[in-house]
Design brief:
Blueprint (H helix, E strand, L loop, with lengths): L10 H17 L4 H6 L1 H50 L5 H5 L5
């Protein structure tokens, strides 16, 4: 029998870790507002955001949008909705229509 280890760390535990980290940084004398609002930090964040946008626009946008629009929406989602409408109307699904029958 397979024994799967549950390594899920929930969102609440991450929130607690972040809160504890903020408390520890505050205790050590760090002013997070001053750090985040600092000119160097804002400049670095702006650079990082422009880098993320550049990677998205030049490398990721085309394949991700293709997968989302042409694969997920056109092939999977529209077929799912069509079959749900058929089931709601009491008609056989597309798979049932295409299945060979024996008499």
């Amino acid at each position: 029998m397979l024994n799967f280890k549950n390594d899920n760390r929930g969102l609440i535990s991450w929130i607690i870790i972040i809160v504890i980290a903020v408390i520890v940084l505050s205790y050590l004398g760090f002013d997070l507002r001053a750090i985040i609002e600092g000119e160097d930090t804002q400049s670095n964040l702006a650079y990082l955001w422009s880098l993320v946008l550049s990677v998205w626009n030049n490398y990721l946008a085309t394949p991700v949008l293709y997968l989302w629009n042409d694969i997920f929406i056109d092939l999977l989602w529209n077929t799912f909705v069509e079959n749900m409408d058929r089931i709601k109307a009491g008609q056989p699904t597309t798979i049932e229509d295409l299945t060979p029958t024996t008499y």
